[in-house]
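Work Package 3 (structural annotation) set out to generate three-dimensional models for the target panel prioritized at the project kickoff. During this period the team completed the workflow that converts sequence records into discrete structure tokens, so that structures can be stored uniformly alongside our sequence database. As a representative example, we reproduce one entry of 81 residues exactly as it appears in the project archive.
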Amino acid sequence: MAAYFFEVGLLLLIVPWSTFWDRNLLLEAVPAVYHVSREPFVRGAVSGLGFLNIVAGTLEVFAAFRASEHAGVHDGPHEAA
């Protein structure tokens, strides 16, 4: 799941500032949407969602490490048989 968050986050962080965003045929099909999508605050909002996805991915990785650490902890010393 963390890989998904990182991948989507990177795309959302970078794509709004690339030429792909400017030359998107889906956005050009509706002129009102195209003009709004070119506004810097919309690009910033999409990049902000990308940043949040990267943070979520980082938290997922830390949670996985923490869970693996706790899984290896025993309640007490074991007696030799």
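The chain has a mean pLDDT of 88.
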